[in-house]
């Protein structure tokens, strides 16, 4: 029996795929391993693909989908990432679309109908989409020729971005008739690779990899005894490298404190974190991508799918939780091939942050069952429940404990809940005990602490930084020294040789950069609202043409929400 995709492949024997590459994408040549992977996948073969960030993973499934027969489904973890890839493909006139929860129902149905009519070659979905009633059956009807799983490390509890529904993709693949499957990741250790193979049924599939070398990145660790020392070092790095730059903070409160310190020194950085509204996150990201010299302060929620090739510096204000997460984040720098400087500001006291995160990220399955049963028992009252009430119910000792949030995140990512707490929240599916145990295995806490230990050894051991990272991912491809880390060479000399001329950090990037969003107010504005008096804007929300602002009332610091189109208000200069 001819393998899936074989007809299209056989018709192309002797045909130079480079003409398709240039016609469809405008590239004149393949990057290392791309053509081999494309031919393998197009010919009906499955594979595990490990490629460094920026090496062109997406082309490995996009080109086979566009020149081969049938439908290719691409599973991706982030809606924003899918939207960006589909927009780029559609701009080239290529038949791609995505279906996700942020689309209005009529639009989802229109896109699905177009797919079923055979008008779409590439369909992007999140793994949770396969839980939606009727979707898997519809895909069986469409006939799936190929399945691509992007960010495949999300399959594994060992992976740094575990997503419960990634575990079900093996079942999904079998339900679709076992189409050829391409699993792709930039950050998969040997243990994670084993989990990916087991979960997706790729035990005998070949491994293609380009290594993880990023010769144009300089890796450095700077010991800082105090936050003041960190700030001084950060300013020195930013002044030398100029922008664009990202500074990653582990905690939102530290990010906001750093924002204030930089503002007091005349800088106006962009910010990205989970307490911003969806509109604010979108506009801050768009401003960063569009700017030639922007400075972004962000939590680790920022970066995946950000298509910005000229990032010159990435600084970690606190130690990340794993080497995988760290290398993914620094891998966002220098995608244009030019030099970029990546530094971790290491302070031993910061370890308590990540130790707490490890504890909070690993509630027991019994704890999760208690939260689920409580939500289920509330019935319709669950729509009014808020996070503070849930935390007060289950966390009597340490109100900073994040285990409730972890359970809610797992429930949301598995399609068990919808909406937002305190608004339109609903428990739409109750997971059984076996499912909860699969999400929260008893040994996961120890695994996470081991991951943090590897990160600490990287930061505190005077060994070649890149050799340490490469060995962690199972590569032994460096000699005695890499020539691009602070252990192997002098950072200042490397900067002089590989970075553009020093350019001071701009003093104006920020509010002006998001003016195109046309919001009537922005975070930090002071407004006088009829009936409320002086208020400080905390968040700005957009729904259609309507604008709402979450504000803090100056007289009593109480939170309020103001409909800016219906309420009388005016700006106040401070």
Give a short summary of the structure.
By secondary structure, the protein is α/β, with parallel strands linked by helices. It is 37% helix and 16% strand.
Short key terms for the protein model shown above:
7-stranded parallel β-sheet; alpha/beta; 574 residues; Rossmann fold; disordered N terminus; 21 helices; Arc Repressor Mutant, subunit A
Describe the structure.
By secondary structure, this protein is an alpha/beta fold. It has four domains: 6-209, P-loop containing nucleotide triphosphate hydrolases (Rossmann fold, 3-Layer(aba) Sandwich), CATH 3.40.50.300; 217-353 and 463-498, Rossmann fold (3-Layer(aba) Sandwich), CATH 3.40.50.300; 363-439, Orthogonal Bundle (Arc Repressor Mutant, subunit A), CATH 1.10.10; 519-571, Thrombin, subunit H, CATH 2.40.10. 37% of the residues lie in helices and 16% in strands. It is built from 21 helices and 20 strands. The protein has a seven-stranded parallel β-sheet with strand order 3-4-2-5-6-1-7, sandwiched between helices. A six-stranded parallel β-sheet has the order 8-13-12-9-11-10, sandwiched between helices. It has a five-stranded antiparallel β-sheet with strand order 19-18-17-16-20, with helices on one face. A hairpin with a 5-residue loop joins strand 18 and strand 19 (559-563). Helix 3 (34-42) crosses helix 4 (59-67), helix 14 (351-360) runs antiparallel to helix 19 and helix 15 (365-377) crosses helix 18. The longest helix has 17 residues, at 444-460. The protein is globular and about 70 Å long. The chain starts with 5 loop residues before the first helix and ends with a strand.
């Amino acid at each position: 029996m001819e393998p899936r995709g074989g007809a299209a492949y056989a018709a192309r024997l002797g045909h130079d795929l480079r003409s398709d590459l240039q016609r469809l994408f405008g590239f004149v040549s393949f990057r290392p391993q791309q053509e081999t992977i494309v031919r393998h996948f197009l010919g009906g073969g499955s594979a595990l693909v490990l490629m460094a960030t920026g090496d062109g993973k997406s082309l490995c499934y996009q080109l086979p989908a566009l020149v081969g027969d049938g439908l290719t489904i691409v599973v991706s973890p982030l809606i924003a990432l899918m939207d960006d890839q589909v927009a780029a493909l559609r701009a080239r006139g290529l038949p791609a679309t995505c279906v996700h929860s942020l689309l209005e129902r009529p639009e989802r149905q229109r896109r699905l109908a177009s797919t079923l009519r055979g008008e779409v070659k590439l369909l992007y979905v999140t793994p949770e989409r396969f839980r939606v009633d009727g979707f898997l059956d519809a895909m069986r009807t469409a006939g799936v020729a190929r399945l691509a799983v992007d960010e495949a490390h999300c399959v594994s509890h060992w992976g740094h971005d575990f997503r419960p529904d990634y575990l079900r993709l093996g079942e999904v693949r079998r339900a679709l008739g076992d189409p050829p499957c391409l699993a792709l990741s930039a950050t998969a250790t040997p243990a994670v690779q084993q989990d990916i193979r087991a979960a997706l049924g790729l035990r005998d599939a070949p491994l293609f990899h380009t290594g993880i070398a990023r010769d144009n990145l300089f890796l450095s660790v700077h010991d800082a005894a105090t936050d003041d020392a960190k700030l001084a070092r950060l300013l020195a790095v930013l002044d030398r490298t100029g922008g664009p730059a990202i500074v990653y903070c582990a905690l939102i409160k530290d990010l906001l404190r750093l924002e204030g310190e930089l503002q007091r020194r005349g800088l106006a950085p962009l910010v990205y974190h989970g307490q911003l509204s969806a509109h604010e996150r979108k506009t801050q990201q768009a401003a960063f991508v569009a700017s030639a010299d922007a400075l972004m302060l962000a939590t680790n929620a920022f970066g995946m799918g950000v298509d910005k090739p000229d990032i010159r510096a990435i600084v970690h204000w606190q130690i990340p939780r794993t080497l995988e997460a760290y290398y993914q984040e620094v891998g966002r720098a220098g995608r244009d091939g030019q030099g970029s400087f990546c530094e971790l500001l290491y302070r031993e006291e910061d370890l308590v942050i990540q130790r707490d995160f490890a504890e909070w990220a690993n509630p027991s399955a019994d704890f999760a069952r208690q939260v689920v049963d409580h939500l289920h028992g509330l019935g319709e009252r669950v729509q009014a429940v808020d996070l503070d009430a849930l935390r007060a119910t289950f966390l009597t000792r340490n109100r900073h404990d994040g285990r409730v949030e972890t359970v809610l995140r797992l429930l949301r990512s598995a399609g068990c809940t919808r909406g937002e707490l305190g608004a339109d929240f609903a428990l739409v599916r109750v997971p059984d005990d076996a499912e909860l145990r699969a999400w929260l295995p008893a040994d996961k806490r120890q695994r996470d602490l081991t991951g943090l230990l590897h990160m600490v050894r990287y930061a505190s051991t005077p060994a070649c930084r890149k050799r340490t990272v490469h060995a962690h991912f199972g590569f032994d491809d460096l000699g005695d020294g890499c020539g691009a880390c602070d252990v192997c060479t002098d950072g200042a000399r490397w900067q002089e040789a590989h970075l553009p001329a020093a350019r001071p950090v701009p003093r104006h990037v920020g509010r002006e950069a998001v003016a195109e969003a046309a919001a009537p107010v922005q975070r930090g504005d002071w407004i006088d609202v009829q009936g409320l008096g002086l208020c400080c804007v905390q968040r700005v929300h957009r729904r259609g043409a309507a604008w709402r602002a979450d504000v803090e009332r100056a007289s009593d610091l109480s939170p309020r929400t103001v409909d800016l189109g219906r309420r009388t208000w005016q700006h106040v200069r401070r």
